[in-house]
Amino acid sequence: MQKNIKANVSWVGYIDWELETFHGDDYSIFNGSSQNAYLIKEEKTVLIDTVWTPHRFDFIENLKQAVDLHKIDFIVINHGEADHTGALPALMDLIPSTPIYCTAAAVKSLEGQYGQRGWNFNVVKTGDTLDIGNGKKLMFIDMKMLHWPDSMATFLTGDNILFSNDAFGQHYGVQELFNDRADQCILKREALKYFVNILNPFAMLVSKKINEIKNLNLQIEMIAPSHGAIWRDNPMQIIDLYEKWSSVYQENQITIVYDTMWNGTAEIAHKISEEIATISPDTVVKVYQISKSDKNEVMTEIFKSKALILGSPTISNDVMASVSGWVAFLKQLKFKGKKAAAFGCYGWSGESVKILQEKLKDAGFEVIDESVKSLWKPNGQDLTLISDMVKKLV
Ligand code: FEO
């Protein structure tokens, strides 16, 4: 499928309805996704990005319907990750001398992944432009660490489209392509989930980059990311959301995450939830048994929270593997400005609460001293501890 998105610009990507996970199994996909590529036909013809390797032949056949491949004057590669460059080797086999515009870091990632194939690289940086005729230019904007060192965005003057690559994207398949045609609840949720799970580790850089883009006075009329819906209706809304999300974001929410062996720790989790609802009815409470929950959705809820309460029983002088594995991912996301507390049941040695507190500190949370450590199952004394913990957090 190809579809005109504005003036002489068409979408020539691939909607991946069957995709279930991304980054290996590190990111869950519930609503399909897409790898967006774009074709600009002015005096010069330009391809921006490609698609993931398994779809390379579909992509090339589709592209042939839109243009004689030998008429492509330039290829812009905004980012080297395989979901956007997987089709490049097969395409370059057909048009090997076509110039590729990308960052210096992208040359390294492309050659690292696909080998040194003698491609005609043209290295660009912020402010560099490429004349494509009819009074239009492409301007390149370095997007280093959003989310790879090689990332960049490309702005098309005249039509004022920002091809932002991963930034402002969502893992969300939208046949109609545009944000105003998408289910608004899913769109906002998927945009947030994408930001939390992929971009939040670089949140400080997001703020700086948005300021830099604003200072370029680009008059953006459309944001065309490399995944999900294209922002044509009020495109600045996603930039505003990124600004909000990248500055130590939180709502009046507390999220409880735990795992349990014989339900004692689950019982504490439930009592903590009820206590929050009693003491602070305005606070939203979410409860997840991590071994039975989607980790990316849980991370999205923690991002919205002012505090995380984490529980595990003690097992073999440690915490449950489901919890410790998840905490390793929690640390990667570099959440800021959030409080945390720990709880858990034990029968013999009882180390879990202390271990959880240390892990939470290590993950960047401000851990309160109040905790709940229950022998076998929560008792009357523990209910007081739960109340003290909740009072401190709400
Ligand atoms: Fe969509 Fe960083 O790849």
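^ MU-OXO-diiron complex. The two ends are 51 Å apart (CA to CA). The domain at 253-389 is CATH 3.40.50.360 (Rossmann fold).
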